[in-house]
């Protein structure tokens, strides 16, 4: 299971995306049309079937309409 948590510049949670993914390289899409223009940060969390968890460091992206 994969969770993508998206935060705005002041750290408020803007959206959460949950996807069930199989092993291997995968992708998820984020619809940014609902976000105001600005800088956002996302944190990817992966929960493995063996009980392990991986939390990546926050990474940023810019929304421009």
Concise structural overview:
It is built from no helices and five strands. With 65 residues, it is an all-beta fold. Strands 1, 2, 3, 4 and 5 form a five-stranded antiparallel sheet that branches.
Descriptive notes:
The protein is mainly β and 65 residues long. It has one domain. Helix content is 0%, strand content 48%. The chain has strands at 2-7, 13-19, 38-47, 53-55, 59-63. Strands 1, 2, 3, 4 and 5 form a 5-stranded antiparallel β-sheet that branches. Strand 1 (2-7) and strand 2 (13-19) form a beta hairpin.
Strand content: over 45%
Mean pLDDT: 92
* Largest sheet, strands/sense/barrel: 5 strands, antiparallel
Name the shape in a single word: elongated
Total domain modules: 1
Helices and strands, in order, run as EEEEE
List the topology elements.
Elements: E1 2-7, E2 13-19, E3 38-47, E4 53-55, E5 59-63
Antiparallel strand pairs: 1-2, 1-3, 3-4, 3-5
Entry keywords:
65 residues, mainly beta, elongated
């Amino acid at each position: 299971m994969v969770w993508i948590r998206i935060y705005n510049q002041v750290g408020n949670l803007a959206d959460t995306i949950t996807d069930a993914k199989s092993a291997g390289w995968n992708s998820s899409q984020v619809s940014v049309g609902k976000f105001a223009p600005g800088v956002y940060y996302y944190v990817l969390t992966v929960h493995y079937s063996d009980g392990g968890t991986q939390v990546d460091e926050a990474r940023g992206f810019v929304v421009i309409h």
